[in-house]
Design brief:
The complex is a heterodimer of chains A (about 325) and B (about 325). Chain A contains 15 helices and two strands. In chain A, strand 1 and strand 2 form a beta hairpin. In chain A, helix 4 packs parallel to helix 9, helix 13 crosses helix 14 and helix 13 runs parallel beside helix 15. The longest helix of chain A is centred in the first third of the chain and has 26 residues. The relative contact order of chain A is 0.18. With about 325 residues, chain B is an all-alpha fold. Chain B has one domain. Chain B has 15 helices and two strands. Chain B has a two-stranded antiparallel sheet with strand order 1-2. Classes of the chains: A mainly alpha (about 325), B mainly alpha (about 325). The interface between A and B is large, with 57 and 49 residues.
C-alpha cells in the first residue's frame, strides 16, 4: 500500500491521508472554528480545556455505546443509569465526604449488575436489545425515583464532585487542567485498547457483522454480548459520576443522553446493526455533537431546538452512510 | 400466505396463534382475582369493566397503527412525539371554540399523515434504518414543539370533550371507536390487497419486490397509517385532558408501550406475522395491569420498575426459543 502511495504525486498522497482521517474530526474542527469566531475565548487554552471538560461525559458514554453498537445492538438504558448514579451517589454519601469512595464502588456494582442483566436478557432470552434496554430504562428510572422519593435535591460531597469539577491551575502551556480531561484520556485509552488492541474488539466486530459466522469460527457470542453491555453500563456510571460534579442532583441529569451517545457514534461513522466503528470516531462524534450544541446556544437558539438539530444530524448521517454504501456496491 | 388471508374472515383468530386467547384469559383472571382479593367488587360491575375498557383507548389506537408498521418489518419510535404534537395542535387551534373543531381535526390528520409520509420515505427511499429515521423525526417534532410551547396550550371546547366523556347506552364513544377502528384495521389486513402485500413485505421484502410488489409504497402506507393513528390518540388525549401539553406523549411512554403490546400480542418484531386481535389483547393486558396496580395500591415509581420488567419478560416469552442470534 505504501509502495503504491509513494509513486503518486504529493497532492494525491495528502488526499489519501485525508481520507483516512475520520470525517467527524474534520466536521468538529470546522464547528469549533465557528464557535471560536463567535466567542474568541474558545480559542484560548482555558476555553478549549473547559469545552473538553464539559464534553467529556458524553465522549466517555459514546465510547461505551460504541461497543454495543458495533456488536449490532443498542443500549438505551445508559441515560437512566446516569440518573441513577447521580441520585444514588447523593443517597449513599448523604453529604458525608468520608463515604465517597465506598459509594463510588457501590455505584460501579450497580452498573455492573445493570450491564449483566441487559446482556443476559439479550444473549439468553433473545430479546432484541432495543426492547430489553428500553425496559431497563423504565425500571432503572423507576428505581432512581423510588430511591430518592421523587424529589432529590442538593449537591454531592466535594470529593465526589471532583471528577467533574476540579480544575488544576497554573499548569504550563494549557494554563488550567480539568481532572475530567484526565478521566476522558484514561477511558479513551482503555476503550482504544479494548476495541482496537485486544482480540475482544475483533470478536465484537465479527459478532456485529455476522453472529452465525463468528460462532462457527469459535467466538463465544453470548460472552461477547454480555461483555459489551457491561462495558457500556460501566461507561455510563463513569459519565454519571462526572455529571454529578457539574451541577446539582436532579431527576433529569441523564435524560436523552442515550440518544445523544448513539447520535455521536453515528456521526463518528459507526455502522448501526454492527460490524464497523472506531473509538476515535465515537469520541470525535461526541465532540462534534457537543460543539454543535454549543454553537446553537451561542447563536441564541432556544434550548429545545437542540433536539431538532440532533434529529436532523442523526437522519443525515445515516442517510449519507446508506447512500455511500449503495454507491460502493 | 396471502391467499389464506384473503379467504379467512377478518375476525377469525389465526390458527396456531393462541396468544390473543391466552392474553385475554390471563387478563380476566388477573383482573377478577385482584378485585376479589382486595374486596373491590364494584370493579366487576358494568361500570368497572367499562372503566377498564376506557383505559385501553389511548394506547389501543396508537398500537393498532404500530401493528401495521411492525407487520411490514419496520418500527415507529416517533409516535409519542407525534401524539404530543397532535394534542397541542388540536387544543391550540380550537382555543375553546366549537366552530374550530373541524379545522383542528383536519389539520392534525393532515400533519400526522405528512409525518408518516416522511418516515416512510426516509426508510423506503433513502434506506435509513427505521429505528434511526423515526427516532430522528421524533426528536425533530419534539424539539419544534417544545420550542414553541412550554405548557398547556389553548383548550378544547365542551363539545369536543364529549369524545372522551360521553357514552351511548353505557358504552363510551371512545371505547366503541376503538373497537370500530380495530375492525377496520382487521379488514384492511385480512381482506384487502394492501393487507396481503403488507404481510408479504414483512415476511420477505426482497421476495415481495421480486414478485412485483411495490414494497416502498407498502412501507410508506404502513407508516402513514401509524402516524395517523398516533394523531388520533393525540386528539383523544386532548379531549380527555381538555387541553394539550408538549409532554403528554412522552409521559405516556407510548413509543415503547405501543411496540411492547404489539409484540406481546404475538406479532413478530421482524414482521410478516401477527395481527390486530393480538394487539388488542396486549392492550387489554396492559390496561388490566394498570387497574390491578391501582387496586393493590402500588405507588407510581414501583409501578414503573415493574412495568419495565414486565415488558421485557413478556417479549422474552416469545423470543427465548428463537434459534438464531438476536442483537
Amino acid at each position: 500500500m505504501t509502495l503504491v502511495l509513494d509513486q503518486r504525486r504529493p497532492a494525491s498522497r495528502a488526499l489519501a491521508l485525508a481520507r483516512k482521517v475520520n470525517v467527524a474530526v474534520i466536521v468538529f474542527l470546522v464547528l469549533y472554528l465557528a464557535i471560536g469566531l463567535l466567542q474568541p475565548t474558545y480559542f484560548e487554552p482555558a476555553g478549549l480545556m473547559n469545552f473538553l471538560r464539559r464534553a467529556a461525559p458524553l465522549a466517555i458514554l459514546s465510547a461505551g455505546q460504541l461497543f454495543v453498537l458495533a456488536s449490532g445492538g443498542f443500549d438505551l438504558s445508559v441515560g437512566s443509569l446516569i440518573t441513577l448514579t447521580v441520585i444514588g451517589g447523593s443517597m449513599l454519601t448523604a453529604n458525608d465526604p468520608s463515604r465517597t469512595w465506598w459509594a463510588i464502588a457501590a455505584l460501579y456494582g450497580v452498573g455492573l449488575a445493570v450491564g449483566l442483566i441487559n446482556g443476559a436478557v439479550v444473549a439468553f432470552l433473545k430479546t432484541p436489545s432495543i426492547i430489553a434496554t428500553l425496559g431497563t430504562l423504565l425500571s432503572v428510572n423507576g428505581a432512581a425515583m423510588m430511591w430518592s422519593g421523587g424529589a432529590p435535591r442538593g449537591y454531592l460531597p466535594d470529593n465526589f464532585r471532583m471528577f467533574g469539577r476540579l480544575v488544576l491551575h497554573d499548569v504550563p502551556i494549557v494554563k488550567i487542567f480539568p481532572i475530567a480531561i484526565a478521566v476522558l484520556a484514561v477511558c479513551g485509552a482503555l476503550a482504544y485498547w479494548g476495541f482496537h488492541g485486544a482480540v475482544f474488539g475483533r470478536r465484537i466486530l465479527a459478532v456485529g457483522d455476522n453472529p452465525r459466522a463468528a460462532e462457527l469460527s469459535g467466538v463465544r457470542v453470548r460472552s461477547v454480548r454480555i461483555g459489551v453491555f457491561v462495558i457500556s453500563a460501566l461507561a455510563a456510571v463513569t459519565a454519571g459520576i462526572m455529571l454529578g460534579g457539574f451541577g446539582g442532583v436532579s431527576v433529569d441529569v441523564g435524560l436523552g443522553l442515550e440518544l445523544q451517545s448513539i447520535a455521536a457514534c453515528v456521526v463518528g461513522g459507526v455502522q448501526l446493526m454492527g460490524g464497523r466503528g472506531s473509538v476515535t470516531g465515537a469520541i470525535a462524534g461526541a465532540l462534534t455533537l457537543f460543539a454543535l450544541f454549543t454553537l446553537l446556544t451561542l447563536l441564541g437558539l432556544p434550548q429545545p431546538l437542540k433536539e431538532t438539530a440532533q434529529g436532523l444530524i442523526l437522519i443525515a448521517a445515516v442517510a449519507l452512510g446508506a447512500w455511500r454504501r449503495r454507491r460502493a456496491v | 400466505m396471502s391467499a389464506t388471508h384473503l379467504q379467512s374472515s377478518p375476525f377469525t383468530v389465526r390458527r396456531g396463534s393462541l396468544a390473543p386467547v391466552l392474553l385475554l384469559a390471563g387478563s380476566v383472571v388477573l383482573y377478577v382475582g385482584a378485585a376479589l382479593w382486595t374486596g373491590e367488587t364494584k370493579m366487576l360491575d358494568a361500570e368497572g369493566v367499562v372503566g377498564l375498557l376506557q383505559r385501553m383507548v389511548a394506547l389501543g389506537v396508537v398500537a393498532l397503527g404500530q401493528t401495521f408498521v411492525i407487520l411490514a418489518g419496520s418500527i415507529d419510535l416517533s409516535v409519542a412525539n407525534m401524539i404530543s404534537v397532535a394534542a397541542v395542535l388540536a387544543s391550540y387551534i380550537m382555543q375553546g371554540r366549537p366552530d374550530m373543531v373541524p379545522p383542528a381535526v383536519a389539520a392534525v390528520l393532515a400533519i400526522s399523515a405528512l409525518v408518516g409520509l416522511v418516515n416512510g420515505a426516509l426508510i423506503a427511499r433513502l434506506q435509513v434504518n427505521s429505528l434511526i429515521a423515526t427516532l430522528g423525526v421524533g426528536l425533530i417534532l419534539q424539539g419544534l414543539l417544545s420550542a414553541s410551547f412550554t405548557n398547556f396550550a389553548g383548550s378544547v371546547p365542551p363539545e369536543f370533550q364529549l369524545v372522551a366523556y360521553s357514552a351511548f347506552g353505557g358504552v363510551p364513544y371512545s371505547v366503541a371507536g376503538l373497537f370500530a377502528l380495530a375492525a377496520l384495521c382487521a379488514w384492511l389486513l385480512r381482506a384487502t390487497r394492501f393487507g396481503a402485500h403488507l404481510y408479504a413485505v414483512g415476511g420477505n421484502a426482497e421476495g415481495a419486490r421480486l414478485a412485483g410488489i411495490r414494497t416502498d409504497l407498502i412501507l410508506i402506507g404502513a407508516h402513514v397509517i401509524c402516524a395517523v393513528s398516533a394523531g388520533l390518540t393525540g386528539l383523544y388525549l386532548a379531549s380527555r385532558l381538555r387541553s394539550g401539553a408538549p409532554w403528554v406523549g412522552r409521559d405516556g411512554v407510548y413509543d415503547l408501550e405501543s411496540i411492547a403490546v404489539v409484540v406481546i400480542g404475538g406479532t413478530l418484531l421482524a414482521g410478516g406475522r401477527g395481527g390486530v386481535a393480538g394487539t388488542l389483547a396486549g392492550v387489554l393486558l396492559f390496561a388490566t395491569l394498570d387497574a390491578v396496580f391501582n387496586m393493590l395500591g402500588v405507588s407510581a415509581y414501583p409501578q414503573l420498575v415493574l412495568r419495565g420488567a414486565i415488558v421485557v419478560l413478556a417479549v422474552a416469552a416469545y423470543t427465548f426459543r428463537a434459534k438464531g442470534h438476536v442483537a
